[in-house]
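Notebook, p. 212. Picked up where the previous page left off. The plan for this session was modest: take the two constructs that came back from the sequencing core last week, fold each one, and keep the raw output in the notebook itself so nobody has to go hunting through shared drives later. Recording the first one now, exactly as returned: residue sequence, then the structure token string.
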Amino acid sequence: MNAKKIIVWMLATAIIFGMLPAFTPTVSAAMEAPIIDTANFRVFARGTPILIKEVGGQTQVFLQSDPNTPLFGGQDISVGNWWVHGGWESGNYTANTSVIVESGTINGGIFGGSRDGMITGNTYVNITGGSVANIYGGNRQGSVNGNTNIEISGGNHGWIFGGGWEGTVSGSTNIEINNGSIYMVVGASSAAAGLVGSTNITVNDGTVEYLYGGGIDGSVTGDTNITINDGTVDGMFGGSNAGTIG
């Protein structure tokens, strides 16, 4: 669909948001050293900006400030059901989070936020390549008291959720697709408990098989906004699969 723009209004008072803000998250004073939970296949960045890329056939984690020295002794996180969290295991923190994926394979997925607890701040997930099975802007459980931001510029990915699994987002979820191939893009959360304030999805290029402005079972308290500038979207729904809008 060349030069075609589709805007889905879920309420008469809906406000159309533009593209995502520049990917320049503020480093938070609350950040701590990242940790790895090998028993449960989990990585917790704890508010520290991290970079994921493939080196020597292994998908490894680096600090964004030191992209040449792998964390955790270079342990491979590409096997099994690994989950990478931009936030913490649990607890309440005031912080922004940042996860960048350049290459590699993550068969579990990414949460921009924490596994549980509350983050007061914004989450950022930026993916330029590789393959990620599940991408969430928010928390697995708990809440993000702020906005979530996901930007996809390449790679082949499974499910993308602007919200969390059961996690809530008080502000807006923002998803921008600039390239790549994605099975499903969902503006809100997966589970019924995952409420979000509003959703904004922009597709500039790439291929999306299915797109929901709302959630799967998750609901949206405000508006859902979808803008298609280019690319291919095979199936599009302005609302949720089972959740409510407004």
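Okay, moving on. Second construct, recorded in the same format:
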Amino acid sequence: MVTRTDSRKRVYRGIEGRPPCLAVLMLCLFVLTTTLAGAARAEDGARVACMTFKVNGVEAFLGDSVAEVLQASLIKRSSVEIVERSQFAQYAKELELQTSAMTDEATVTELGKVSGASYLILGSINSFGSLLLLNAKLVRVEDSVIVDSFEVDTNQGVEGLLAATREVARAICSSLEDHGIAACTGRAVPTPTEAPVPTPTEAPVPTPTPLPRPTARPTPTPRPRPTATPAPSYTTAQVQAMVETGRKLYRQKDYAEAYQYFKKASSLGSADGTAWLATCYYRGHGTARHFDRAINLLRQAEGGGSDWAKSLLFEIDPEKFSQYRSFYAKFHELAPGQSPQQKREIAALMTAARNGYPEKQYLLAERYYNGNGLQKDYQKALHWYQQAAGKGFGRAMFRLGYMYESGRGVAENLGKAAFWYRKAAGKGVPWAMKNLGALYETGRGVPRDYNKALMWYKRARDHNCPGAAEKVRALQEKM
């Protein structure tokens, strides 16, 4: 007869000699640990905010609609804490922001900080005819680093936008888990089947059937990360539309967004897209400045026949790429004989002149008068001389006197010439003194008066005016 003690030993050894209750407890702890492991990887207190998407070529309300659908999908699929979008109106009010600024990347980053969000989801909806392209990116608020980016397109127009948004949501959810930001919910954790534990009875105890050895915990089948729908083939018109949209954004100084359009168009074989991508690298717009990469891309686009690439190559090195001068002139309205450097200088000069700086007005008039970097134009020269003279600029007064004396750009008027020479002489301009002396000596525009002529010649000589000393000696001999 088997004793109770022996019976107990056999029962306890049913699972490798361990008590059944302890074995079950260990299995439960194992399952619990596995379940909590994913959540333990998530960041403590991570908060995500879905911002209004930019819209290009579609209705404005879709920017908010996509953000709302995205937010609802993330709440359903992820354990991450979502910042309620309705709060952003109050935050924007506190920061004194306009509604139009709510899609600006720098602005929304500030909003993210105010709201306490750890990450932002930004994006854009872009129309290329019947094709809609949905872009999104996950941005860390602390340092504005883009953690991940997503792109889904649909050729079903606005109707296909809902499915595209949900597809992006699935990809974002996977990214949140992959980066340890938040765990995805709704994933079943397999648990091993618990073996029935027989209840010990008083002796005599029949020999129990050995408990089945627990099977190994099944390895969860990896959940495939959602992938974007394969991009359809783009038509030439759609690729060109990308370039034009990028150029529009570039002119609006939204360089980061423009860079993305140029990069996409370049990847699809657009020579102009490649040329504009090179422009971003050359000027450091929307990306870090990289001169060598810009040159390589420009030569590639040049081979593809891009006029813009040829224009920029001429701007970078006018001597080496002198054959592309006409292309630069095409885009920049380059005057005959004008260099890109003169073009930039004149643009700055023009801005300053229009802002009322008399010296800049005088220098701009000089360029028009002499045809230096600009087509010679006496009327425009006269205009800017008058502007500068009206602000008391002496050299401009002298130039007006000379134009009235010579009849350049205006009808000859020696009386006005003497008037402006006298005003310029009062400002200490030596050439005006000399020319006024000549008018008095010859009696042109003023009564002939050798004494006044000699006085002005001497003043010009004392101001080191070239030729004034000879005038003094010649007039003294005549007197």
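Notes on construct two before I forget. Confidence is low (pLDDT under 50) at residues 1-20, 31-42, 186-195.
Flagging for discussion at group meeting.
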